[in-house]
Design goal:
heterodimer; A: 177 residues; mainly alpha; Ferritin; 0% strand; elongated; B: 284 residues; alpha/beta; Rossmann fold; eight-stranded mixed β-sheet; 8 strands; 33% helix
Chain lengths: 177, 284
């Protein structure tokens, strides 16, 4: 797992944590739904199904956060200060996507997205002394671990992942130097 | 108003998305630009009814369909012509033009120069992937001369267009380069560009993963938000021409005279009076 030593999360209060975490999860949900749709539009049903399947997991992760929202007056954090400033944004994993991606690659990308969440939660716990923050993040981490385990079991290379057996592309892009 | 003084936001990025889902190739940088734009609009809390988004033709020009704001999918290279007309007719709108490098710098090259010269209050987002993606990979004005493809087997041999340099020379008052793979930095640039009074060029490096798959590695080369804005064009020119194209941030921001139509001061005139003013203005 990657480390992000410059994360600006030291001792943040619960409202800030809720706002930041909610922003991050919302991004993941948006991109999962969007990529599921575009993969389907590009006739890659297999990869589309994986993104579709992950979206409810992110939504249930968000439920944990939303359950706490009525008690808090959330601060408005400028989008460029959401704590991806010094580490990866969930969307970064998606830059490796392509329309012919295999099932294995799709699982890898969604796993990377979950790992971004996991890294953030781990750093929040390491840098927080407030019990309410630690409790919240612990439950989010547990949720992430469940998702990671599912992805790990699914992420088994299949026959179509074998480079000797690529999916047919009638107009294959040629890598340029 | 500085960014820190902006009031607590009410809108959310999803409020600005339409019911149409983007169908760009999975991995395309345009997805991240669309999201950054919705985040910028939400942060600025601009009413959807107060936004006009105009585009030309190309993959990137599909943008108006994906936003729930007033949109116009125009003709090739004419996004800025349409945006100029819209701003003259409705100076109260936040007018954004969007397109690609081929649309904006080649077919629309002349409009680009004169839009910079007029310095109207328009934000121009160029999603630059250095290729014509929609028509399967022809070289565009920003394509490297050595880039070989099925459609240009020997490369073009032509030196690349420098849009930021041209914009500076032509009179644009806000010039920035962003990277689609930097969601935070890009959102900040777009927010500043929309707030800026005058013509804002936001040139965004946006990988085309299908016809330029090697651009997937751009994220390794881009230097995120490492540029400091200059108000002096000479210093900005030095920064623009001194960059290898991988530095991001605002290069130039100046308080220059903004071209406005008389319509903005005669909003209560009859429709016919306003059209006369606009027609007169467009002859400039």
């Amino acid at each position: 797992m990657k480390t992000h030593p410059f994360l600006k999360t030291h001792n943040k209060h619960l409202a800030w944590v809720l706002a930041a975490v909610n922003e991050m999860i919302e991004e993941s949900i948006y991109y999962c739904d969007t990529f599921a749709h575009t993969l389907q539009a590009h006739h890659n049903e297999t990869a589309a199904a994986i993104f579709s399947a992950l979206s409810p997991y992110f939504k249930s992760e968000q439920e944990i956060v939303l359950a706490k929202l009525p008690e808090q007056n959330l601060p408005a954090i400028p989008p460029w200060e959401i704590p991806h400033q010094d580490y990866e944004h969930p969307a970064n994993a998606l830059m490796q996507a392509h329309y012919l991606m295999t099932e294995h690659e799709a699982w890898q990308i969604v796993t990377d997205m979950i790992q971004v969440h996991h890294c953030f939660y781990r750093d929040l716990i390491a840098n927080s002394s407030q019990k309410e923050v630690i409790d919240l993040i612990t439950s989010l981490q547990t949720h992430c671990l469940k998702c990671e385990k599912i992805c790990a079991t699914k992420r088994v290379p299949t026959k179509s992942d074998d480079p000797q057996d690529p999916i047919d592309d009638l107009d294959a892009p040629v890598a340029q130097s | 108003m500085s960014l820190e003084q902006i009031p607590v936001k009410k809108a959310r990025p999803n409020d600005y998305t339409s019911n149409e889902h983007p169908v760009w190739c999975p991995g395309c940088g345009h997805f991240f630009i669309l999201r950054a734009l919705t985040k910028a609009l939400a942060w600025l809390n601009i009413s959807k009814q107060d936004i006009g988004l105009v585009s030309g033709i190309g993959c990137s020009s599909r943008l108006p369909a994906y936003l729930d704001v007033y949109g116009f999918h125009g003709i090739h290279g004419r996004a800025l012509a349409l945006a100029s007309g819209l701003k003259l007719a409705r100076p109260d709108l936040t007018v954004i033009a969007a397109g690609g490098d081929g649309d904006g710098y080649s077919i629309g090259g002349n409009h680009f120069i004169h839009a910079c010269r007029r310095n109207m209050d328009i934000t121009y987002i160029v999603m630059d992937n250095e290729v014509y993606g929609m028509t399967k990979g022809q070289p565009s004005p920003t394509t490297d001369p050595e880039w070989h493809s099925k459609l240009a087997p020997n490369g073009t041999g032509l030196s690349s267009f420098n849009p930021m340099g041209i914009a500076l020379a032509s009179g644009a008052s806000f010039i920035a380069r962003g990277f689609s793979g930097d969601p935070n930095g890009l959102t900040k640039i777009l927010t500043e560009a929309i707030q800026h009074q005058g013509f804002s060029l936001v040139e965004i490096k946006s990988p085309c993963v299908t016809f330029r798959p090697e651009q997937k590695d751009w994220h390794k080369s881009m230097r995120l938000m490492n540029v400091t804005p200059f108000a002096n064009p000479m210093e900005a020119a030095q920064a623009i021409y001194g960059s290898d194209g991988f530095d991001t941030g605002i290069y130039y921001q100046a308080d220059s005279p903004v071209y406005r139509s008389e319509a903005s001061s005669k909003k209560n005139g009859t429709a016919s009076e306003q059209m006369d003013i606009i027609e007169k203005a467009l002859l400039v």
